[in-house]
Amino acid sequence: MRIDVDPARTDPAAVYRLLTATVVPRPIAWVSTASADGTDNLAPHSFFTIASVDPPVVQFTSVGRKDTLRNVEETGAFVVNFAPEGLFEQINATATDFPRGTSEFDACGVAREPSRRVKAPRVAGSPVALECELHSTLRIGDSTVVFGRVVHVAVDEAYLTDGHPEITRLRPLTRLGLDEWGTLGGIREIARVPYQA
Q1: Are 17 and 164 in contact (CB under 8 A)?
Q2: Alpha-carbon distance 48 to 29, whole Å?
Q3: What is the enclosing helix (H) or strand (E) of 20?
Q4: β-strands 40-45, 181-182: how paired?
Q5: Which residues contact 48 (CB under 8 A, 6 or more apart)?
Q6: What are 56-96's pLDDT values in tens digits?
Q7: Do 85 and 174 contact (CB within 8 A), yes or no?
Q8: For residue range 160-169, what is the model confidence (pLDDT) as tens digits?
Q9: Are 34 and 43 in contact (CB under 8 A)?
Q10: What's residue 197's pLDDT?
Q11: What's the confidence (pLDDT) of residue 42?
Q12: Backbone phi, then psi, for 104, in 5-degree steps?
């Protein structure tokens, strides 16, 4: 027997818990930004995906008005740093609700490196960094979807096989429900079936 839920008649927090426990696993955009006055910010966002390939655009959602969103609006740029399993504790620590003006890089001991095309720094230990310029934002209810045009990609060659990122080396973290996180499990391969009339 199913339980029926009407989002319009349910506490939004309960709807959030239901959605985040069933829309899984979710990739993590570990977003670094810089404020207009130069303070670095770093935070994970688990509502993240590709919006377009040509031009290359990625998107993440800020639930509420967090420092990440404010910084992107002020400077027009951000970096999506790949979130690998090996940096699990640091990624989680940067989700702390620090006061505005606090650098999560410094507070959480995350090493930074300069970006090539944008002001915001990259996470030095992340195997892939997508440097983005703001394309647009879209406000939906209490959230803002941020679209960023990828203007530079930096990939650690140690994570490549024949020029292609190797998933067993990348070992991505994902978000599940509650305080649950996912790691790379079994991998299955199957070719797409072409249509034949």
Answers
A1: no
A2: 6
A3: helix 12-22
A4: unpaired
A5: 26, 27, 28, 29, 58, 59, 60, 61, 80
A6: 999 999 999 999 999 999 999 999 999 999 999 999 999 99
A7: no
A8: 999 999 999 9
A9: no
A10: 81
A11: 98
A12: -65, -30
